[in-house]
Amino acid sequence: MGKVEWFKNYVQSLDDTFEEINRNRIVVVKSQLTKFLNSHKKNQNLLLLGILPDFSGKGNDADSFKLVNITQFYILKKTTYSEVDHDELMEIYEETYIVIEKVLKKILEDSLSYSELRFLNTNSIKLEPVFDMDGCNGWKLMLNFDMFV
Q: CB neighbours of 58 closer than 8 A, spacing ≥ 6?
């Protein structure tokens, strides 16, 4: 199985694992992301986005060569700003944080058994809030892991 197919299947498995997630998509570039988020409806919340990994080389020679995968996952909720006040926006961040934390815990758990994730660089893990990304709010999870070619 190729790396793109593996990533697609992994994103789907995360969607299948968490009942809070109702939709997922893998995107590559900002224009795809914008188009998809603009078509996302409130009744389809919560949304899991996987950003197709960038790959860069690592290793001193051909025997030790690995690809470093740099990727991001988003948990987002479509928000109509005229319908929410500040406290409700904070509730959206709480709701989506709970799910992104579950996703992170699953990735950490999978790194102990999934061969593709076994070289997860835990020092690379970063969570950032996302505000008004094409009408969506939530959290972004950034991480990287090595893979053999």
A: 65, 66, 67, 68, 146
The rounded distance, in Å, linking the Cα atoms of 29 and 9 is 19
Q: Whats the size of the chain, residue-wise?
A: 149
Tell the residue number behind the tokens 């199985």, with chain if given. Answer: 1
Residue identified by tokens 């020679």 is 61
CA atoms of 65 and 148, how far apart (whole Å)? 7
Q: 117, 111, 139, 116: which is closest to 48 by C-alpha?
A: 139
Question: Could you tell me the residue ranges of all domains in the chain?
Answer: 3-148
Assign 17 to helix, strand or coil: helix
Q: pLDDT per residue over 114-139, tens digit each?
A: 777 888 889 999 999 999 998 899 99
Task: Order across the sheet with 23-27: list the strands.
Answer: 23-27, 47-58, 66-78, 136-148, 119-133
What does pLDDT average to over the chain? 89
At the topology level, CATH places domain 3-148 in Alpha-Beta Plaits (3.30.70)
